[in-house]
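As a representative case, we now present a protein record of this kind.
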Amino acid sequence: MTEKILDKINKASDIKTLSNKEVRILADELRSEIITTVSKNGGHLASNLGVVEVTIALHRIFDTPKDKIIFDVGHQCYAHKILTSRRERFPTIRQENGLSGFPKREESEYDAFNTGHSSTSISAAVGMARVRDLSGDDRHIIALIGDGALTGGMVWEALNDAGHSGEKIIVILNDNEMSIGRNVGAVSTYLSNIRSARGYIHLKGFIAKVLGGIPLIGKHVKNFVERIKNIIKYSLMPNIMFEQLGFKYYGLVDGHDIADLEKILEHVKQIDDPVIIHVKTQKGKGADYSTNNPEQYHSTCPFDIETGIKETNGCGIPSAISSHLIELSKEDETICTITASMEQGCGLEEYKQIFPERFFDVGIAEQHAVTMCAGMAAAGYKPIFSVYSSFIQRAYDQILHDVCMQNLGVTILVYNTGVVGADGETHHGVFDISFLRHIPNLNLLAPSSVKETLEMIDTAINSRKPTIILLPKQLPNLAIVKSNEKSRWTKFTKAENPKICILANGSMLINSMDAIRSDDLYKKVDIYNARYMKPMDIETIKNIVKEYAYIVTVEDNLLQGGFGSAILEELEKIDFDTRKLIRLGYSDEYIPHGKISSLHKLAGIDKESIANRLIELLNE
């Protein structure tokens, strides 16, 4: 059996000695290992397949880990992990106690910065570059960022600062015309114009070569006609934005031609100004199913390696909500839906097809999305913003200041709240209750079924109040018990000799119900669906205090500032010994990646742990 090139790579520097032929073989081997592992574990496939050659070239030209490579978002780092002494552990990626699916400084000195959210890498690079300059170091700082990330405002804050101050950083703009889905907006159009204007790129190189070759006077002539060259440049490509911001721009480079990449990287190493290298790559390269449908294989569950057929289609929450929004929009022309580059993840493809004029994808721009919704609500419309929990964190100020302070009728559907499994600490939605519930005027809801979710959407739209609905990864379709009073908490059980009351909502309501299946617990424990976390059902709380010896809250959230804390605040106002309040949830630390069931057990909010805690209380 022929030895693989990868078998010779024990650390990143080992690839520097490879021949050009060996490097091309290495790229194929890296893609094969990535596809094999992701087919088993799930993970980010298309984005990783697109940057294999770029990753190889970076490690061949730069001296890592001394030189720092920052992967924007982080879902492009799989080839990097394999090349940096983690190949043996790569099959454990995204598995419990295995490698993280994102860069992680605690995991390797080659991981310069932890990144799970888009559009952060250039800011981090500027910070590292300033420390380098202040300390007299000579290391290179490289930010690898996708074109989709340029729809995020933080990128332009960083470009503005770096271009003005002039710190030497190298930005690799990986242009695959995608973020998670197809890119949208003026920046995407601008990059498309650059891609189509290769005439300027070729002409620029031709002029420099010819003028520089004229004996004796070549250098002087070259400098003299620089202004003429700029006139040509701006006539062929108006508003070279990056150069006007203070960056040296190089492009367009074939991101799959390692030789060309290495030449340009060697060149820019000698430049003391901020630089942008614009490379064109193909998202999903190396697997037809991924190339043909990069959005579907951006982040994927396990699949058949030959056909690409996936093991599961996941839960039906987004599609059910989308169908409901379509029906509501047919009846009410003031309803609009908004997303931030998450059209497919939030199940809005069909809505977009039926109501293209009322569907708005703003790109990776959650702050803009929320304030835009506030503007729509102020103008009399009913905006509904669909977003992942991990990303709504970036729009806190806009929720507090632009929506809630004005008491505007904006509805926000927050998907993947609670722990989400293999994506880990950068994507867990365990902070939602803590950073949202204290905001005045906000209604904060947590349904326990798809049916209840749809009812809450109706209530939110009709109320014309700021409303956030928290949606975990999975919910049953039908509600366990239907309530005629939408804002009241519903008791699900009828204990014969009630001693303990459980207050829960969302997926924790299901775990709590499963915990009291034994006859002894079922007779002594009542469970309430506390679906409205704000405003709280104060009347029901006052009644509960009179009836039960213990109150137990269960939440898929941090205990600090969470749902249990809200109950504690209310109990302090009335005659109840708060030592009899037991709060179950996550402690004050970031939660690792792993199976959702394992993470629930870690926090003591799985059905067995809940049952054991109830038994302990009854024995007391």
About this structure: DSSP finds 26 helices and 17 strands in the chain. The chain has three domains: 6-197+237-292, 317-471, 490-619.
